[in-house]
């Protein structure tokens, strides 16, 4: 039997993983540099002093990215008390959600360029997400960065779901 708590928990796990990867992983991975650290500080604080080296269109894009991250953080924090109060989910349904999530993520990796373009067209329809090859954002965040970020998100989601599946609170 599936319940809404299971779906809400899965959304919470994905948001947690995304937020963790955005704020923790870039600072601690080998190819991270000072510019990356500054941009993460901007995403966390909104203080424009951290993005002074960026062009106007890059700053506009990072503001949009920050707004999306803050929306995700708001949803994450809003769901947390609900999940703590409920403490109930269907572990089989949670695992089924994980399988679908993994299939979609593998397809995104296989078709990465298409996924990346569609993702940006959907979330940034004003078009401020395309930059020249020599822009600071492209140099700081090459395609391999986003592939690794997706990999880390998938890894964390899988680990959390498998831990919860072992605990099995029904």
> Strand percentage, roughly?
under 5%
Overall body shape: globular
**Largest sheet properties:** none
Mean pLDDT metric: 85
Number of strands: 0
Put simply, the count of helices is 8
| Alpha-beta classification | mainly alpha
N- to C-terminal separation? 10 Å
Number of domains: 1
Listing every helix as H and every strand as E from the N terminus to the C terminus, the arrangement reads HHHHHHHH
Give the uncertain stretches in residue-range form. Answer: none
**Helix proportion of residues, in percent?**
over 70%
Please give the radius of gyration in angstroms.
17 Å
Report on the structure:
It is built from 8 helices and no strands. It has one domain (4-167). The chain is globular, with a radius of gyration of 17 Å. With 170 residues, it is mainly alpha-helical.
Q: Which descriptors would you attach to this protein?
A:
170 residues, mainly alpha, 8 helices, globular
Produce a short descriptive summary.
This protein has helices at 4-23, 25-28, 34-45, 56-86, 91-110, 112-123, 136-140, 143-167. The protein has 170 residues and is mainly α.
SSE layout and pairing:
Layout (H helix, E strand, L loop, with lengths): L3 H20 L1 H4 L5 H12 L10 H31 L4 H20 L1 H12 L12 H5 L2 H25 L3
Helix pairs in contact: 1-4, 1-5, 1-8, 3-4, 5-6, 5-8
């Amino acid at each position: 039997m599936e319940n809404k708590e299971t779906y809400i928990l899965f959304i919470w796990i994905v948001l947690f993983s995304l937020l963790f990867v955005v704020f923790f992983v870039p600072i601690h991975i080998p190819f991270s540099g000072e510019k990356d650290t500054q941009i993460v500080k901007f995403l966390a604080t909104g203080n424009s002093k951290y993005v002074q080296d960026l062009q106007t269109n890059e700053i506009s894009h990072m503001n949009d990215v920050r707004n999306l991250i803050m929306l995700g953080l708001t949803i994450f924090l809003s769901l947390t008390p609900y999940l703590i109060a409920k403490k109930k989910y269907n572990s089989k349904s949670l695992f089924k959600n994980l399988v679908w999530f993994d299939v979609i993520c593998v397809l995104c990796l296989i078709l990465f360029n298409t996924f990346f373009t569609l993702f940006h067209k959907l979330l940034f329809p004003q078009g401020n997400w395309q930059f020249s090859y020599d822009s600071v954002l492209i140099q700081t965040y090459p395609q391999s960065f986003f592939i690794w970020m997706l990999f880390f998100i998938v890894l964390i989601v899988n680990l959390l779901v498998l831990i919860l599946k072992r605990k099995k609170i029904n």
